[in-house]
Design goal:
Blueprint: H1 3-55, H2 66-97
């Protein structure tokens, strides 16, 4: 091969290596900022958990009688069931609002 072909190949090689390094640095900096924001969100979540633990005046569930813990579970499950019923009612309301055409035979489909 002539010398100028080798020169073009070497220039192309260095251009690709440079581009790869710039690409890796750019995405590395982006990843660092993403992980930093993720760390901040996690820290805020832990702060909220700490606040909840400090505000709790009731004893821990396993230190209470089974009847008290069972009653709390029953109340919590009732709230969950009520929330699911409300969601189901919203869905049914939306589904009922969708009118279906009565005459399926006369539909005109675009080709």
């Amino acid at each position: 091969m002539p010398w100028w072909v080798w020169l073009i190949l070497v220039i192309f090689l260095f251009a690709n290596i440079t581009y790869g390094l710039i690409y890796a640095a750019h995405h590395g900096m982006k990843a660092i900022s993403t992980f930093a924001s993720l760390g901040n969100r996690i820290a805020k979540s832990f702060e909220k958990v700490g606040d909840v633990e400090n505000k709790a005046d009731e004893p821990i569930a396993f230190t209470q009688p089974i009847a008290v813990t069972g009653e709390k579970y029953t109340q919590a499950y009732a709230k969950v069931a009520a929330r699911k019923v409300r969601a189901r009612m919203r869905h049914e309301k939306i589904w009922d609002s969708w009118e279906e055409p009565q005459d399926y035979q006369n539909w005109e489909f675009k080709k």
